[in-house]
TrEMBL record:
Organism (species): Limnovirga soli
Reaction catalysis annotation: The enzyme specifically hydrolyzes (1->4)-beta-D-galactosidic linkages in type I arabinogalactans
SUPFAM superfamilies: (Trans)glycosidases (SSF51445)
InterPro entries according to UniProt: GH, Glyco_hydro_53
Classification lineage: Bacteria, Pseudomonadati, Bacteroidota, Chitinophagia, Chitinophagales
UniProt keyword terms in alphabetical order: Glycosidase, Hydrolase, Signal
Known EC number: 3.2.1.89
Keyword RNA-binding among UniProt keywords: no
Annotated family: Belongs to the glycosyl hydrolase 53 family.
Annotated signal sequence range: 1-21
Protein name: Arabinogalactan endo-beta-1,4-galactanase
GO biological process terms, semicolon-separated: pectin catabolic process
Transmembrane segments annotated in the record for this chain: none
GO MF terms, alphabetically ordered: arabinogalactan endo-1,4-beta-galactosidase activity; glucosidase activity
Amino acid sequence: MRNLIFSLVICSLLACNKSNSQPGNPVTPPVTNTYTFIRGLDLSFTPEIASYNISYKDNGTTKDILTIAKSKGINTIRLRLWNNPATAHSSLTEIMAYAKQIKAAGLQFWLDFHYSDTWADPGAQSKPAAWNGLNFTTLQDSLYNYTKAVLLQLQQNNVTPDYVETGNEINSGFLWNEGKIMSATDANWGNFILLLKQAIKATREVAPNAKIIIHIAGYDYAQQYYTNLQNAQTDYDIIGLSYYPWWHGKDLNALEQNIKTISTTFKKPVLIAETAYPFTFGYNDYTNNIAGSADKAIDAYPGTPIGQAQFITTLVGAVKKAVTNNNFGVCYWAPDWVAFKGSTATDGSPWENLSLFDFNNNALQALDSLGKH
């Protein structure tokens, strides 16, 4: 992994096949009006969890998680990529190996570039350490060449992504501070757009059939955000939104109306790129849970297996109703993140009560709701 990442970094720093820092005219993707409703799972933790010899079950029978997912109607698997992580997890080497399994299982592959060595979200978008200190022109070249090199590696291994997300929850931009934006009127939007277009340009050149997703968290900021992208003639295919009720509001009707408005305004399909919901408020390890109390739930959907399933059914239905022309889908984040380090771990999973597998690692009803509703 280190040698592979090192090669990519060197390529970026030397700006091989330089982009000359100009976005240029976008490469227009093939025109198509055919969209498959994404029923997705983000299984980025699965390779790490597998190293602990954890297995998953369906009706008490142990099966590979991809086999379970496909049997339930899931059609897409999302994986995050970190540039040079501290461990092998979320590395290009790990992703490439797992993407081969995803493709072999007949599932679509969705690549989520974080453009960081670690977690990237609205509150943290740190540059890869190898890019610290670069001037803006070289940073643009590095982003372009890194994106291109990753996609070429995947292409050469017959695992070209079906979907490419050029930055994770980039409400506040990415590659801070050069690409940082803290509001719709931030003076740095121009620099953010220049960087974003480099990632998009590289993606179009290597994977012209891949759908490009621009992903933010929540919907309150969406109108202003995507208006700025539209005004800058940004070339992308899908609007991606994270929706966690305890962070983004508990009114599913408001979510539906906002999705409808966003899709109509920007004439783009809208995807719930991340979501999750509790099936219990109990714990299966000693790690504090992010949504570990009843106030995190919507009153109409209690934190029970049935409540979780009903929430997913309603959410899928809301997306379908809101985006009638190009309805696009729902992806569940970290359904695999069970208490894999054991029941006494204080550094285990903060998400096991939000998983789509119960505390015995049996598939929950909500997985059927996502795959078949």
